[in-house]
Design brief:
The chain is α+β, with helices and mostly antiparallel strands. It has helices at 7-14, 40-46, 54-61, 302-323, 355-359, 364-367, 374-384, 386-413, 429-448, 450-470, 488-499, 502-511, 513-527, 536-544, 549-561, 565-569, 574-580, 592-605; strands at residues 2-3, 69-77, 82-92, 99-105, 115-122, 125-126, 130-131, 137-146, 151-161, 189-191, 195-198, 230-238, 242-246, 249-255, 261-270, 275-279, 281-288, 291-298, 330-336, 342-347, 350-354. An 8-stranded mixed β-sheet has the order 6-5-9-3-2-12-15-14, covered by helices on one side. A hairpin with a 4-residue loop joins β2 and β3 (82-92).
């Protein structure tokens, strides 16, 4: 996920210009490359993998017919904000011990029960659903236990009511994260008049630890969940005039007798299965090295939606060159009304980008209306005169466009970290978020040059940390579970998205570009479809540069485990930040009284 807490606003204002039962199987293209013993359903799913990637996936995961298979059949009624259907998961028991219990996770239930399961059947027999150790989990006893290598089939009925999206989710108010209380899924499970986001409605089996206990679920901050790679066959039925978007290869649209439309998707070896339903959307597509890249957007945002397609295609092109091929045949970017400081959210094969970013550039100052502290800030701007107001509006627009491109690149990078190279997003969020953030910075360097990348490094990584400190936040350990950030999204953004990614910048300086990029590619190749540890990338760097192994470990401790942010990034005051960003808003100078007022407004602008 790419967070955009309230510090972004001040960065923009102050910075100067800068560079169901599945449908009958259709004919399967390329099926000759799949072993004839593989079931037709799995063959359908494998169309989502590039032909050359199937062997690599099998090498990492074992026989692809043994990968968990989800059969999803959902119906959506957007007007009533209802979703219902059935989900069946078939999996092979793994591990040294017999399988005695299964868990299903429903991330929409983090704070209230918005999705319910019923009519559970295990291997065709009715079983009880029990509450798990946390609200998002339900437990099923496996009786008799299934020996390792045995197959288990679990079927449940699903029913949910989707809450209305948070007020302001389609304006820049949706970016106003930073509060210290309350849980937020960033709009992942929410509905507006034209968008129903159903992320998490498909119950999935969570990874378990060495004791057989499920990994921790969402904490109301950061990402929601990640799962073992699985295949998915899904049918999504929606009213006429609505469209369904999900991960995977599209298998077609079938009109139903009642006027509804059934969409079908097949996905292979994916760690999650997001679902969104939209009305009045348009789309644009391109192709990158065998990947169909799709951008789906509201009709009124067509110009931005096409730029999003360009940014996504450019980023994927650069990442495939350096990180290796994306294994999937389709990648989608869907405009969605995100909230709580999220500019984008990532899922394998599909990402969302906040509606606020699509619309803000059209009239950035108008879009700021209603944000905390903006009434007083507007008075400050008015007092400085029309010249400053116009210049601020232009600078905000330019900053928003950079933010949009950087956000898209960040979400594309998540296809590798942790979509392909898995890591625990709840216990170890620093692993994938820091790499996605730094990879987005690398994209800016490759696409726009070192000067533009350095400007973005200051604007998107260094300044968030400095604003956090300026507002009274304390530096601390970045490597901790999402639930341990007592300072809320503001602290989480400053340390995980701001400070932590710069470990990779420091490591690159230490070992040099050749060793750094060799290690980055080796990291992706080694852990494709697997789980990586917190130290795994450091270990790959040490292999590429053995003489620096000890220093690399020390760098990781310094940037992730210790509190040296002020020393490494600088503890700036407001005037110092302005000077670092190009300094003085043109010919306009802030007097001491105005600067003091800005500093007083800072906590409000940052959501505190």
């Amino acid at each position: 996920m790419r967070t955009l807490p309230g510090w972004w606003l001040l960065c923009a204002l102050l910075s100067g210009p800068a560079a169901a039962a599945p449908p009958a199987a259709p004919a399967i293209p390329g099926a000759g490359s799949v072993a004839p013993s593989v079931a037709p359903e799995v063959q359908l799913c494998l169309q989502h993998l590039k032909p050359g990637e199937r062997d690599r996936a099998a090498k990492a995961l074992g026989p692809l017919e043994s990968v968990p298979l989800y059969r999803v059949q959902l119906e959506v009624e957007p007007k009533e904000r209802r979703v219902w259907g059935k989900v069946q998961v078939q999996l092979v028991a793994k591990g040294p011990r017999p399988l005695t219990e299964l868990y299903l996770r429903l991330t929409p239930n983090t704070r209230s029960r918005q999705v319910t399961l019923s009519s559970a059947k295990l291997n065709g027999k009715a079983v009880a659903l029990e509450l798990g150790p946390e609200p998002t989990l339900q437990r099923i006893t496996v009786e008799p236990p299934v020996a390792p290598g045995g197959t288990v089939s679990l079927e449940v009925a699903v029913k949910g009511t989707v809450p209305r999206a948070a007020p302001g989710a389609e304006s820049l108010m949706g970016l106003g994260g930073g509060g210290k209380t309350g849980a937020d899924d960033h709009g992942a499970f929410s509905a507006t008049a034209d968008v129903v986001s159903l992320v998490g409605v498909v119950p999935q089996v969570p990874p378990v630890d060495d004791q057989g206990q499920p990994w921790a679920g969402p904490q109301g901050m950061g990402d929601l969940a990640l799962y073992e790679p699985a295949h998915v066959l899904a049918t999504l039925t929606v009213p006429s005039g609505w469209a369904a978007h999900a991960t995977g290869t599209p298998l077609g649209e079938v009109p139903e007798r009642d006027g509804r439309v059934r969409y079908s998707f097949a996905a292979a070896a994916v760690r999650d299965f997001p679902v969104l339903v939209t009305r009045g959307y348009q789309s644009a597509t391109s192709t990158v090295n065998g990947v169909t890249v799709e951008s789906h957007f509201a009709a009124q945002d067509a110009a931005t939606g096409k730029r999003v397609l360009k940014y996504a295609s450019q980023a994927l092109t650069e990442f495939e060159k350096r990180l290796g091929p994306l294994p999937y045949t389709h990648f989608r970017v869907v405009q969605a009304p995100l909230s709580g400081g999220a500019g984008g959210m990532e899922f394998p094969g599909l990402v969302t980008v906040g509606t606020s970013l699509y619309r803000a550039k059209q009239d950035p100052l108008k879009m700021l209306a209603g944000m905390p502290g903006m009434e007083a800030f507007q008075e400050l701007l008015d007092a400085q005169g029309a010249g400053l107001l116009a210049q601020v509006g232009a600078q905000v627009g330019e900053s928003l466009e950079r933010t949009l491109e950087f956000t898209v690149a960040h979400e594309v990078a998540h296809q590798y970290f942790a979509g392909l190279v898995g890591s625990d997003p709840i216990h170890d969020p620093v692993v994938d978020e820091s790499l996605a953030q730094y990879a987005a910075l690398l994209y800016m360097e490759w696409a726009h040059g070192p000067e533009a990348a350095e400007s973005l490094r200051n604007e998107a990584l260094v300044m968030p940390y400095q604003f956090f400190r300026l507002s009274g936040g304390r530096d601390g350990r970045a490597d901790r579970p999402t639930g341990d950030f007592d300072g809320g999204e503001l602290e989480y953004g400053a340390l995980v998205y701001g400070k932590a990614p710069l470990l990779h910048h420091a490591s690159r300086k230490l070992v040099g570009d050749s060793a750094f990029f060799k290690a980055l590619r080796a990291y992706v190749d080694t852990y494709r479809f697997k789980w990586a540890c917190k130290a795994c990338f450091t270990q790959e760097l040490a292999k590429a540069s053995p003489a620096n192994a000890k220093a690399l470990g020390q760098l990781r401790a310094r940037w992730w485990e210790e509190a040296h942010g002020d020393e490494d990034l600088g503890a700036a005051d407001l005037q110092g930040l302005m000077e670092a960003m190009g300094g003085d808003l043109g010919d306009v100078k802030l007097d001491a009284q105005t600067q003091q007022l800005l500093e007083q407004l800072l906590p409000q602008l940052m959501g505190q």
